[in-house]
């Protein structure tokens, strides 16, 4: 069948269902109301619930199971989750209206005790045995307790498959002081873990499921350690990992019966995994099928075969959509403060020096507006302001700049602190902070190449503006083109690939006089970076005291004020 080009333009890659099928979300970061200015990701949590309800019926009718899993990071990145105190107050109850079979924890649930408390008060009690945390515990009356269950052993409703599930967070060193994260290499030596493996021998288990908030790249780190233990204990069993944290789409084959799926970020993707457990003779591509489903109603309706929106919207889905509308209204998230008219500002679709780089815009226009709280007599005439690029969470698109915008771009309400150091020392701090990836910079799939600054000549046309060149693929909307261990057909919707430029760990706004060589400089940075900056100064042979408070007007507030009085 030769489809007309416009049909091809809107074509989607169908799902291939297995005995057991999974839907995976990760790093949703509060984006439950969808992306208002990006049609590709315009689906909201109500649409996702409608989609999953139809898919559960569809699979059950075919004698198959559908399992839903989420691997954490459920706030910090959108006003729906971050415009309340504690953040997540309104968004978590909406999140939990989705019927998950396994929910695990991300590092963003652990920076502040108030967020961990919310997991314990809201999600754990309502999810009961579905909240699984194998290596994170909380402190109560001097004793550590698991957050939820350390593992879950359950039987699937349709196929009656016996699943042994674990959930691991990466070796996170910044958890609040009332929680603790035990690295995987230690967990596998703990009695409870060994007891579970011996209590559920091969004959008692059909599938091992690991839902984790950690990158699942088979060539690096912690998952490989876990893989060796599980594969040894369950030599011939299908094992399925779902990972997160690095905000990428990726799929990796560890062996014929073990694969790992990562499903992006910010409600841009619903990861799908179809697993055939029935036959032993299947090769890996017959046993596993993966898809990265664009988080929008077109994709959801296509995969459920329901063309009418009225039929697609379920009762729960519609009620969640209504709840999202009233939540956004109550939080005033769509109240307009200013306008983004000049251009879109991107995190890594353009190099840092590009005028459309969001880091360029922030360091050149917004950070210089930061004013000290203390009297200026104690201050130096020159200063540099350092931010970590991981604190900037999303692009800023043309259109109204609203109350939601600063939560989307920079949700962290960190104070600014100050250290005064000689200029020649100050100028060496940023290069040191950029030497390692300890302040997480984006991790793209191993096949994906970052572009360097010198690759600047690429087509930097606006995201979403289609150039009308003859070539068919050029007419596709921009989006993910994911290359993984199964090739480049994993995205459910063909896109024209966006390009990603390498982004450093930190960037700085420098107001330094090139002529004054030996002056002292005020180095201003987020309180969040204190240990990193002090570590860099120590490496420079300039150990420092604790920094002083400079300002409590966090970046999101600076951006709001700038947008209210300037054209962005
Ligand atoms: N400036 C701040 N940056 C923060 C803070 N909390 C987290 N972060 C940044 O987020 C990434 C981790 O995000 P993830 O979604 O990949 O888990 C972390 O590496 C920091 O760069 C904060 O309070 N202030
Ligand atoms: Zn995240
Ligand atoms: Zn994370």
Q: What layout of secondary structure does this protein have?
A:
Elements: H1 5-9, E1 20-25, H2 45-61, E2 65-70, H3 79-82, H4 91-95, E3 102-103, H5 113-127, E4 136-140, E5 143-146, E6 151-155, E7 162-166, E8 179-181, H6 184-187, H7 191-199, E9 207-211, H8 221-233, E10 239-243, E11 249-255, E12 258-263, E13 269-275, H9 284-287, E14 288-294, H10 297-304, H11 309-312, H12 315-330, E15 336-340, H13 358-366, E16 383-388, E17 399-402, H14 403-409, E18 416-422, H15 423-433, E19 478-479, E20 496-497, E21 506-511, E22 520-526, H16 530-539, E23 548-551, H17 555-565
Parallel strand pairs: 1-2, 2-3, 7-9, 9-10, 10-12, 16-22, 19-20
Antiparallel strand pairs: 1-13, 4-5, 4-8, 6-7, 11-12, 13-14, 15-17, 16-21, 18-22, 18-23
The structure holds ligand LQESDW3C and zinc ion (ZN) (2 copies).
Structural summary, described in words:
This protein has 568 residues and is an alpha/beta fold. The protein is 27% helix and 20% strand. The strands form six sheets. A six-stranded mixed sheet has the order 6-7-9-10-12-11, with helices on one face. Strand 9 (207-211), helix 8 and strand 10 form a beta-alpha-beta unit. The longest helix has 17 residues, at 45-61. It is globular, with a radius of gyration of 24 Å. The two termini are 48 Å apart. 46% of the residues are buried. Bound molecules: the ligand Nc1nc2c(ncn2[C@@H]2O[C@H](COP(=O)(O)O)[C@@H](O)[C@H]2O)c(=O)[nH]1 and zinc ion (ZN) (2 copies). One zinc ion binds next to loops.
